[in-house]
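Lab notebook, bench 4. Continuing the backlog of folding jobs that were queued last week. Each job is logged with the same field layout so the records can be merged later without manual cleanup. Today's entry covers CBS domain-containing protein, a 246-residue chain. Filled in by technician R.K.

JOB TYPE: sequence-to-structure
TARGET: CBS domain-containing protein
LENGTH: 246
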Amino acid sequence: MKATRIGAVMVRDVVTADRGTPFKEVVRRLGDHRISGLPVIDEDDKVIGVVSETDLMLHQARTSEPDGTFSAWASRLRKLSRGVRRNAAKSRARTAGGVMSTPAVTVRADATVTEAARLMAERGIERLPVVDEEGRLAGIVTRRDLLQVFLRTDEEIERDVRQEVLVNTLWLAPQIIETTVEDGVVTLTGQLERRSDIPVALGMTSRMDGVVAVVDHLSYRIDDSHLRPAEQAALHGVADDWIRRL
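JOB STATUS: finished
OUTPUT FIELD FOLLOWS
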């Protein structure tokens, strides 16, 4: 089973704004479409930023402050961090270009759902514009879209790890490695023939749909990390014979 790509789950009909879209129009589009953010694109459909509800709240917070209080606060901006000054500029913006967050965090359509989910978690964001090879907007994906993949059962994940990783990729008899799955966390236990097989097993398993994390309890019989390519090829031939005898 191949990992699901973002292109298969993204929404292609995207609500967008351009740099000059008025602030109130951005708010209206979010409300009309019941979304919490949208990408900002240029004349070539390339994503130049993203406007979120957090960005809009900065503007609301500024307009609700008494003029004197805000002026006193603004006079101290030179002493504050760049991030605070940037937020202050957003609070006074009148267009999408002024209030948007840049650079935009995007993802390619050929990325896996797992890769996109990790990116969202690392950056603390709820949506990702999907772009093509030239950075043009192709769609958008949200956390809700990605979470559908994690509804797979532990039994389905275990079956696919055994078949796709152990048998089809590493050419192992499935009983060599103990594979257990609990709440999407895969534990691999056992001894592989070569050390170089361990990152392959862990990497492929981690990229499979529905896998939350991978616990490594793998060891190896032969350390082939120091061998030259020709020596590794010869070793693989010996190891393949060992596997076939099982």
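OBSERVATION: Residues 148 and 210 are 9 Å apart (CA to CA).
SIGNED: R.K.
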